[in-house]
Amino acid sequence: MPQDAIDYSKTVLLPETAFAMRASLATAEPLRLQRWEEEGIYGRLRERRGGAPRWILHDGPPFANGDIHMGHALNKVLKDVWVRYKNLRGFDAPYVPGWDTHGMPIELGVSRALKGKPVGPLELRRLCRAEAAQWIERQRNQFKRLGGWGDWEHPYITMDPSFEAGQLDAYWSLLAKKQIYRDLKPVHWSWASQTALAEAELEYKEKTSTQVYVKYPLSPESAARLGASKPAFAVIWTTTPWTLPASLAITANEKFDYALYSVGDECWLMARSLASNVFEQLPAIRALGGAEKSAALAAQAEPSRQVWAGKGADLEELRAAHPFIEGRSIRFCLAPYVTSDAGTGLVHTAPGHGAEDYVTGVRYRLDILCPVDEKGCYNEQVEPADLKGKRVTDPATDEAVLELLRARGRLIHAEKFQHSYPHDWRSKQPVIFRATKQWFMSLTGNGLRETVASEVEAVRWVNPWGKDRFTNMLKDRADWCISRQRYWGVPIYMFYCRGCGAEHFDLACYEKLKPIVAREGGDAWFDPARPLSDFLPEGAACAACGGKEFRKETDTLDVWFDSGSSSLGVLQARADQAFPADLYIEGSDQYRGWFQSSMLVSCGVSGRAPFKAVLSTGWTLDAQGRAMHKSAGNAVDPMEVMEVWGADVLRLWVASEDFTADMTVSDALFKSLAEKNYRRVRNSFRWLLGNLSDFDPARDGVPLAELQPFDRWLLARLAALIEGVTASMEAFELHKAFNQLQSFCSSELSGLAFDVHKDTLYTLAAGDPRRRSAQTAFHHVLQALLRMVSPVLCFTCEEAWEHLPECQRAGSSVHFSEWPQSRPEWRDAELEDDFEVLLGLVRPQVTRQIEGLRAAGSIGHPYDAEVALSVHSKKLLRILNKHSGFLAALFIVSRVRLGNAAPQDGLALGPEEIAVTATDAVKCVRCWRRPGDVREDSGICGRCAGALAHA
Ligand SMILES: [Zn+2]
Ligand SMILES: [Zn+2]
């Protein structure tokens, strides 16, 4: 056969892999999910990890209502990333998803759909249960599409009897130690939903209210005591005139200075530092402006006008009359919460309508008067009686109260103003403070606050500010109101004596109830067909009066108590879990939500925090940094993102930014992530798979000592990468971990090693030790990359894993493999120093000159060039000489000559020391290099001839 008939392009070893360049994730991922499910792959992972140390991420249950949004996607992907990571690290790390099911939104939705059709509690609960169940089914499919592995067939669900049984344990444990109590207390009350609200259910919005300055007539004795010779009044300021009918006291600050001022033919009592607030309301002074006004205010406050001056502490014995309710005596109280930033320094006090007022009321043994019913209207207790029936949040009600004041000359001034006011987050209506009989969890009883405080110290708060945020949220909170006046919830299991009203629930009650709840859940309690004797132990008698007739409580527990009990209902109840959990990951709103409720219940029951570490995420925002809302039309739908780009691109987004801060999303961002970041990683996998197709590590692997220096350097970089990524993962800095992986793919691999080794891999004989050396290094790189990237790109890495030759694949799934270990022997300080010089100092300058030549048209391919280095630096020359055989490959040129010009110390390289020229040597038709030994007859170089001879 004549030489010129040989097609040398058929003799080069081009990459071979079926791993596609185009990912087609949107179509490929659902098929893989289906296969994973058919293979029962999550169960197989559990079997493989059985007996290993357990690592538990406890899922904060999303509410089973509505389709998933980007916040859910972020949350579930993060959890899956850490569960996969811990499984790779060799832990038995199961994932049990949860759902929160009870609560008002579902009950309101169901009630609305009934359009007024009356149904009993049991039927209502049945409808709510069906509603929650269908959302669970829908969300489950959406969550699974994200790629998360878990026990999706056996989740924990707060409406399941098994969960409710655990919650009953928590409730009974707290009740038995009197951590739970019933009391009349003002709570945030939604009249629109007719229920008490937790802090977490409030949202603050602007509201127009009326602020008023009101005069309370001092009793004649009190006026005389202050030396008043004219009618004397205490002046108060309030923004809730509707609470005046419940006013029982005036509270002062004992440390403030007060004075009784002569104003016209009256005397007014108020704090001296705030008196000008009141004087400004006088018609004569209101009319003035500028300097005249200041002068008039000063004149009014002059000492000569002060009939009496003294401290707040002097006021405690005073008495006043109510401004419009005949016969009601108003007493004076002292409290440190009275501030000097607004008002008059005298605070009208209605213990039934304010948290601080309540505290004062208890201290001074005032009535907890609350003349407002559950619909937010004055009830029959109200005085004067003609206010009855008026809704207190109605502006007309404030007006009616003002009219009562005006009629008696007690109103100094009233005006409308805007302020931030709590609203019911569901009905969007303003809430009121209203005293009702409620169940509470005490934060002070049994030293719970102290227990929590010491447990807080033992927890790893991953976000640096997490501990402070948690502590602050807890510091100022009052006892937790855990009762709700709703049907769709876990019942508050309590009996009341029909004779005397006393509460009755003891160990016998708990033991009788437990099996019923474990079997039937809370429905049994609400079933009107079931006699009380089903729940009450035989012979139960009231401890107070001996009565034997009881009625059941109808309130239900706050849903935060449901999810807050999951440490009992899940971590301690399930065989595949452990208590406390290793990690909780949720949004940063959970410092006052689930993190807190879980901590309180767990510490209350067992004295221990339910978690060892807490990590919180920021919000997901649109490209302009605004919150995303379906109604605002700026919401990015995760299901749509996956339909277009695939779940792996969504998962890559989670890993691309610091998730502890707010994260933005937009269609443009996903496009860029898919086309740049994702493709870079995928192309690296593809290149490596293709060039390792003929490599069997057992047969072809080169021992470390025999590897080419560049390949040893690559392993040193890999060791550093593994160490860096592992450290970032342990610090929960996912974006840093993933950045290092991406940067390795672009800098070390596609920006360097792939170019440098293309020639080695394509043109040397298959078994050439230099080629096997390169493959050995790339084999380690690919193995480590696939495992380290797999928690994030769980689909893509599995796909690449399947394309590995059998001999390179340890196990049937990348997710069954082990996290790579950095090997100390891969590190080589001297070699790494050499390459820092070669890659940092020399290569960029040489490459720049080659590019210059190419741009000028002097050469086509870098192989058309040869490089002459005539360096001064002795150290540099030593390094260059050491790696002289590799320099041509490093620069991707045909030849490199080294020379020494006037040896010097130091390490430097100037452009004048580099000469790049076009070579006139003949081009090898096989490898395209121009090494100077191409034979005329064959047209190929000596190295290629050798490679063919060994092929
Ligand atoms: Zn009784
Ligand atoms: Zn050649």
Structure characterization notes:
The protein has 951 residues and is of the alpha/beta class. The strands form 9 sheets. It has a 6-stranded mixed sheet with strand order 10-8-9-6-5-14, with helices on one face. Strand 3 (180-190) and strand 4 form a beta hairpin. It is elongated, with a radius of gyration of 39 Å. The two termini are 18 Å apart. The model has no long low-confidence stretch (mean pLDDT 92). One zinc ion binds next to helix 31.
Strand order of the largest sheet: 10-8-9-6-5-14
The tally of beta strands, per DSSP, is 29
* Helix run count: 31
- List ligands, each type once: zinc ion
**How far apart lie the N and C ends?**
18 Å
Q: List segments where confidence is low: pLDDT < 50 over at least 5 consecutive residues.
A: none
Q: Which class do the helix and strand fractions yield?
A: alpha/beta
- How much of the residues is beta strand, in percent? 15-25%
The average pLDDT value, as a whole number, equals 92
Q: Tell me, what's the shape?
A: elongated
